[in-house]
Amino acid sequence: MENSDVLDALAEAEHSFEQSPDTVEDGLDVDEPELVQLRRACRLLAASSLLLEDGYYTVVIESSFVAIERTIQFRLIHDGAMDPSQVISSHRRLYQRGAEIGLYDEAFGDELAELWNQNRTKTYYRLRIATKEQAEAMQELANAVHIHLVDESRASYQCLC
C-alpha cells in the first residue's frame, strides 16, 4: 500500500487496540462469558432497530441472524452445555446444539439453519436484494427468539433490552 492516508489510518487503528481501555461501551463491561454473548445480542437487536429505520435492510438481516446466534451461545454457556472457550463455527451446528440441549425442538433448529443457509447468504453476497419486509420479519424473529431464550434463563435480569 502506497497511500499514506491509508497507512496512517492503519497505524492509528492498530495503536487504538494496544491502548488500555479509556472509554468503554456501557453494558458490555462484564466478565462472565455468558453475559458477553447475551449483551452483544442485546446491542445487535438495538442497532438493527436503528438501521431498519434508515433502510439498511441487508445489515438488519445479518444483525438479526447474529443476534439469534449470540443468544443461543448465551444459553449454551449459561446452561453449562458449552465451554466459553469453545467456538462453534458452523451456523448449522450451533442451531443443532441448541436443539440438543432442549432450547427448542430439532425441527425449529433445522428451520433456523435452513433460513440462514437459503437467505442470509443470498442477501449478504447480493445474490438477492434485501427488502424491508424481509428485514422486518428477521428482526421480529430475532427479538422473539431472544426474549424467549432469555426469559427462560436464570439471568433474564442481565438483559439490556
Descriptive account of the structure:
The mean pLDDT is 93. The chain has 161 residues and is mainly α. Helix content is 66%, strand content 0%. The radius of gyration is 18 Å and the shape is globular. Residues 1-161 form the DUF8154 domain. It comes from Halobaculum halobium. InterPro entries: DUF8154. Pfam families: DUF8154 (PF26481).
Question: What distinguishing features does this structure have?
Answer:
6 helices, 161 residues, mainly alpha, single chain
The ordered H/E elements are HHHHHH
Derived structural class: mainly alpha
Q: Can you count the beta strands?
A: 0
Low-confidence spans: none
Tally of contiguous helical segments: 6
Biggest sheet layout: none
Summarize the amount of helix as a percent range: 55-70%
Protein name: DUF8154 domain-containing protein
Pfam families: DUF8154
Organism: Halobaculum halobium
InterPro entries: DUF8154 (IPR058467)
Please give a quick description of this structure.
With 161 residues, this protein is mostly helical. The protein has six helices and no strands.
